Amino acid sequence: MSAKPITGRKVFFITASAFAVIIAVNVTMAVKAVGTFPGLETKNSYVASQQFDAARAAQEALGWDVAATADGGQVRISITGPDGEPVAPPEISAMVGRTTVRDHDVTPDLTFDGAAHIADLALEPGKWELRVAATAEDGTAFRQRIILNVEG
Predict the structure, then answer these.
(1) In what order do the strands lie in the sheet with 126-135?
(2) How confident is the prediction along the chain (152 residues), in pLDDT tens digits per residue?
(3) Domain coordinates of the chain in residue numbers?
(4) What CATH fold (topology level) applies to the domain 63-150?
(5) How far apart are CA 18 and CA 11, in angstroms?
(6) Beta strands in the chain (DSSP E)
(7) 10 Å Cβ neighbour count for 51?
(8) What's this model's pTM, rounded to 2 decimal places?
(9) Contact by Cβ (8 Å): 59, 142
(10) Residues 142, 62: contact at Cβ < 8 Å?
């Protein structure tokens, strides 16, 4: 049985094919990375940093403690004041989404049941981000980001 000799043409096509596969994978990964980037947090970070400390101090002065859970087809957001009693801010909203992809973002309708704000929302297992935005009675803005790990 005789084997065909390796020629320069065969070596060229093998090498070119290997590089073509590597380039195709790199282009695919770059397109996926750019396509899933959620974007910027703020347009001008310098201006945002100038207001950050004052907003943080005002929010901390409220003394609110926020906890969230997601189970049984519901998302539950509990806000307690410094006295340990539930807080029902006049304005509250929440955004629930994946930490890496903004395609799954949902703004649920929250209702206060006397102890917590509840929304009917069944989350798939995995890591979710909950962004709570509320306004206190005195007009102080409250913002908090909570990571929810939903078990399967």
Answers:
(1) 91-98, 126-135, 141-150
(2) 668 888 999 999 999 999 999 999 999 999 988 887 766 777 888 888 888 888 899 999 999 999 999 988 899 999 999 999 999 999 999 999 987 777 778 999 999 999 999 999 988 898 999 999 999 999 999 999 999 988 87
(3) 63-150
(4) Immunoglobulin-like (2.60.40)
(5) 11
(6) 65-71, 74-80, 91-98, 111-112, 117-120, 126-135, 141-150
(7) 9
(8) 0.66
(9) yes
(10) yes
